[in-house]
Structure formats: C-alpha cells, structure tokens
C-alpha cells in the first residue's frame, strides 16, 4: 500500500503495484489488439520476438556497453560523471520504450534518489520487471508510449531513446511525451535519419511487406543480410565515391560494406559482436512495420511546436538526437 501511495501521483488512473510492476486499474490496460492499429500491433509483435531472442544471448553485455557509451554522445554528456551530475537534480524520470529495461536500470543505479518509470508496449517489460526487481526506485508499466496513464507535468526527465519512430504516429507520441515534462524538465529523444534515396525505397518496401512475412522468415532474412555484411566487411576494400546529389549519395571514401549499408541495403556487421547479435540488430531494422525516418527540420520541428528549447543537438549518419527543455510554466 505504501509503495502504491508513493507512486499514485505519477499516474492519472488508479494503479496496482505488484513488486515493481505497475498495473493500470482499468479494463482496457492489456487489450492491445483492439486499441492499436494493424501496423502497431505487428511492430509490438516484432519487438516481442526481438527482445525474446535478445534475452537469450550471452553477448548482450557487449550491446549494453556499446549503448551506454553511445548514449553519452547522443545526449551531450562527455563522461559518465556528467550524466550522474545531470541526474542529481531530478526526482522523477520516465524511460519511454524501455524494452528489456537495462537503460532504465542504469539510470536507477546512477541516481538511486530518483523514481524511474520504464514503460513499453512489448512483453519485454514483464521480463524487465523480474530482472530488476532488486532496484527499489525502478518500476515498469506495459502500455503504449503514445497513450500512457502518466500524469502530465510530473516528470523532470523524459527519455525516448531509439523508439519513437516505431510508434504509429511519432508526432503524436512526441506531443504526449512532451506533455509529461515538468517546468524546467528535459526530453531526450532519438530518431532515425533519412538515408540515400535507393536505401529509402528499399526500407519503405519492407515497411509495407513485413506484416505479411512470417516471423521465422524475417529471422532467416536477418541472418542472410548479416552474412552478407560479414562477407562485404571481410573484403576490406575501400574506394572514393563521387557525390550523387539526385540520389542523396554523399561523396567520400567508403568501404564496400559501408557504401552499400548507407546507400542501398542495411547489412550490419561488427566483428566484435559476432553473428547472433548482428542478426538481432538487422532484424530490429527490417521487422517492425513502423519505422519512420526524419529530416533534421522535421525532428527539430517537433520540439519547436511543443514550445521546447533545444539544449543539445546531435547528428550522425544513422540518426538525429537531442535534449529539449520546457522552460517556465507548464500548461499541463
């Protein structure tokens, strides 16, 4: 009862707290099949499959280490101490799209004084609740991050890392998550960046087709493009590519693998990750029906229309990311 009372103010609806799993006390809380559209349902199922497979890999520690280091550069922290200092001034955090919860747990360990809510539509969140039951300041909820039961204006830091583009309408999701910010609160978000036109055409093709392809075939396909990525990488051939503006292909020096990767076909490979983890990474790209890509102007426009100030902006070939602040009084 005490834990429920401590958490209730962070939720609009009545809640039930079972250890560190928060259940929303209304009838439709798990009725995903009726409340989400076909492509969002397929995207949920793809991530159920991805996280289920990933949870069995002994190499996941390599992914966690990489993601934590990358997180710092994505959101403007030079070192782990900078992130810890940033979190020191926070009381409430939501990790929207937390998956298996390792980043939520990382933040909870860095800031044990903060109440952290990890939320995800996939069943991975149930596994996360079991895995991180020992962290007393961390809770998990299974809900669509575009339509949560969280209290508007109640969170000092909202994180949506590598997830928002997988929602049905990312702009609606951004608006909702921005509404959760307290005055002075910050929203950290990552989106996919648009690639060269040939790559975009292929990616759009898979967005239309993937809901019709059985999951086992998608995993087989992911394994095949992983093998292709390894073969191309092992060629160890570099060349100078001319700029081709009408195709949005940037000029410069590429390896064969990177040239095809950025401009034609995602075929991810890293020697230090090995085949299984690279296959999960390729599946993660191709399997979800929802995977919108953005221009820089579109991404920054989402923050602007919500009245958020850009505190930090980052761009690289794969993505755009940033931290956006709600200044002054919040209407929420």
Summarize the structure.
The chain is of the alpha/beta class. It has helices at 2-8, 32-35, 38-54, 60-74, 80-88, 102-110, 124-131, 170-179, 197-209, 215-235, 256-263, 274-286, 296-305; strands at residues 15-18, 21-24, 92-96, 115-120, 138-142, 155-160, 181-193, 238-241, 252-255, 293-294, 309-315, 319-325.
Q: If you compute it from the alpha carbons, what radius of gyration comes out, rounded to the nearest whole angstrom?
A: 20 Å
Shape: globular
Which blocks of ≥5 consecutive residues have pLDDT under 50?
Answer: 28-34
Count of alpha/pi helices: 13
Helix content: 40-55%
CATH superfamily of the largest domain, please?
Vaccinia Virus protein VP39
Assigned CATH architecture of the largest domain = 3-Layer(aba) Sandwich
**How large is the share of residues in beta strands?**
15-25%
Average pLDDT works out at 92
Terminal residue distance: 28 Å
- The CATH class name of the largest domain reads Alpha Beta
SS content category: alpha/beta
H/E series, N to C?
HEEHHHHEHEHEEHEHHEEHHEHEE
Number of domains: 2
Q: Please tally the β strands and state the result.
A: 12
Q: How many strands, what sense, and barrel or not for the largest sheet?
A: 10 strands, mixed
């Amino acid at each position: 009862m005490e834990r429920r009372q401590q958490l209730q103010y962070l939720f609009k609806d009545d809640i039930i707290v079972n250890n560190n799993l928060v259940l929303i006390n209304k009838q439709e809380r798990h009725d995903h099949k009726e409340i989400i559209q076909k492509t969002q349902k397929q995207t949920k199922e793809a991530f159920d499959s991805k996280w289920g497979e990933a949870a069995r890999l002994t190499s996941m520690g390599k992914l966690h280490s990489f993601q934590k280091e990358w997180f710092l550069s994505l959101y403007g922290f030079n070192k782990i101490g900078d992130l810890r200092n940033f979190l020191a001034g926070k009381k409430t955090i939501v990790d929207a799209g937390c998956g298996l919860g390792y980043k939520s747990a990382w933040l909870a360990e860095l800031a044990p004084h903060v109440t952290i809510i990890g939320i995800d539509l996939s069943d991975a969140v149930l596994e996360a609740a079991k895995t991180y039951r020992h962290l007393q300041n961390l809770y998990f909820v299974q809900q669509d991050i575009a339509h949560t039961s969280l209290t508007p204006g109640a969170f000092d830091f909202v994180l949506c890392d590598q997830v928002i583009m997988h929602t049905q309408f990312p702009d609606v999701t951004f608006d909702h998550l921005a509404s959760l910010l307290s005055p002075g609160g910050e929203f950290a978000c990552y989106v996919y960046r648009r690639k060269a036109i040939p790559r975009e055409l292929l990616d759009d093709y898979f967005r239309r087709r993937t809901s019709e392809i059985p999951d086992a075939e998608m995993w087989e396909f992911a394994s095949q493009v992983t093998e292709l990525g390894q073969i191309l990488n092992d060629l160890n051939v570099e060349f100078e590519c001319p700029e081709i503006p009408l195709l949005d292909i940037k000029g410069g020096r590429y390896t064969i693998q990177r040239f095809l990767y950025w401009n034609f076909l995602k075929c991810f490979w890293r020697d230090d990750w090995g085949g299984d983890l690279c296959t999960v990474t390729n599946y993660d790209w191709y399997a979800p029906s929802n995977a919108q890509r953005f221009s820089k102007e579109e991404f920054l426009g989402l923050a602007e229309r919500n009245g958020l100030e850009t505190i930090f902006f980052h761009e690289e070939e794969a993505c755009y990311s940033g931290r956006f602040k709600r200044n002054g009084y919040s209407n929420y």
